[in-house]
Amino acid sequence: MRDIDNANLKARLHKFLPIILLFFSVLNEFDFNNLGLKYFSFNFSYILIFYYSLKRNESLSLVSIFIAGLFNDVVSGLPMGTSSLIYLLLCGAAAYLRNITLSPSLFKDWIFFLVTILCLNSLSFIILNFFFNFEIVYFDEIINVIFTVLFYLIFSYFFKFIERFLLGNYYAR
Amino acid sequence: MEKSRDDFVIAIRSAFLKKGAQQRFSLLGLIFFSIIFLVLGSFNFKVVDYVKIIIKETVYRSSFIISGPENLLKKNYSYLKSHLTLYSQNLKNITDLKNFRSKDLTNKILILENNRYKKLIDDFFIKDNEIYAKVLIDKQSPFLKSIILNKGSRNNIKLGMIVLDGIYLVGKVVEVNYLTSRVLLLPDINSKIPVSLQPGDEQAIMSGNGNENGVLQYMKNSDLKRNIDDLTILTSGAGGLFISGIPIGKISKKSSNNNQAIIDFYINFSQLKYVKVINFIKQKGILDLSSKEGLQEMDNQIEEEKQQIETVRILKEQKKISEEVRVRIQEENGILKHRAIKLENELRGLKENLKKVELKNEEIRLIEFKTLYEKKCKKTFYNKLYKVGTPEYKNCILNKGKIN
Predict the structure, then answer these.
(1) What are the structural domain ranges in chain A?
(2) What is the ipTM for the molecules in this complex?
(3) Pick from B16, B24, B59: which is nearest to A75 by CB?
(4) For chain B, what are the domain ranges?
(5) Quick one: chain A helix, strand, coil %, rounded to 5?
(6) Global confidence as pTM
């Protein structure tokens, strides 16, 4: 009985972990996007959303991603709707990759992620700069993209490890 | 080619239009929704603004709650850091404390001197309590020129406190309620303020005339006629309620016509919005100026403190000299120790040499005596003497034969 409860708890935790992580990352004062370091920043939300939309799309609902985007905009002072749009497009890209992939490979995911965030950051730049007159430092953006792509590998292993820890080898994909 | 394009369209359609089992909205729908949000956000629609405000309020509070653990960690980290740096901090504090202690005596003297000078210029009041208040009611009554403030006894307003507008005198508190208080303005006929006319330091009592001016009472009018343009009215400080030197106003030009000193106030009493309520108290430790004993006592105190400083200085000098002497003695001690060790080593070497010489001498004597007394000591078949090489044999040879 206790084992069942334990397994149930782990399954629940596994189910809600992405949402918890997503909201925690957008609402927390601590921001990986602005660590105060000159040559280091990465977008944890991009990694999280892309990974879970690709691997376990049922665990991150689109509405929660939309709301998380709104929250992120409020906390970071961006025009409301910008992050939601970018997050949802990221989800769409991940869904497209999932649909066209027959044999998943981390390397292909990684390359696709790079292309996607380059496109999405460009779009974000267009929205913020052209429509809302926000000043953006290109160099910081590039640093952010590079580290986000690099950290995707690390975090994909980390998420996999957590899945294995919570569900065991059999269920982890 | 045609087929691959179809695949692409199908994949895109599936990604953006198909609702998953757990999803309530399609991706495309939500993307449109966020675009609408963005577009509406750029226009200033009231409804959108309200929605934004609600979202922001929610998010700020949620963010505050979610950042709680992080803030707690930060707090604990700084707490831990302060613990780790406690030792170095303590050392720094000890050094600082020493410095401050040495400065303390000088400060005490300065304070005493300062008090004495304050005393001499009759300005021995200090600000005790300063409160800013809003003028709630400024209803001008023909009977009472007063205003009501939004601060009362809850905010430590007390009867008799001075009310200022900037640096200019407004009046004094005459009624204190729990949340409000009443201030009697200078133009009120019941307001009596001891003033001095500068330059010249002419003393007088100023009273309100019930309109917008004040009048001077109990003064000589002769001086007034001479210097009418230059005279300014300041509080004199007499009576102890006000400190001296708060500006009030100037003598009006009407005075010469009326043959009465009329005062134009610096401030417009109908325009008061915010005022400052201040309390002045007599500084502790100050003695009465009129008392010569008090001044004497103060001088004695200063002298005592100066002596203490001198004593401390001498002790410091002595300490410095003692320190130097100690260092010298230590150095000498070191040199002597070094010499003693050297001499000891030399002595040990000499002793060893002496031993060696003694041994050599013994051997020489042994060889000399051996030829002479060998027969008397060497063991043979027919005697019971000593075997060659044994210590007994050696002793026998040196003793020139067996000793019975």
Answers:
(1) 2-167
(2) 0.82
(3) B59
(4) 1-43, 54-82, 125-282
(5) 75, 0, 25
(6) 0.47
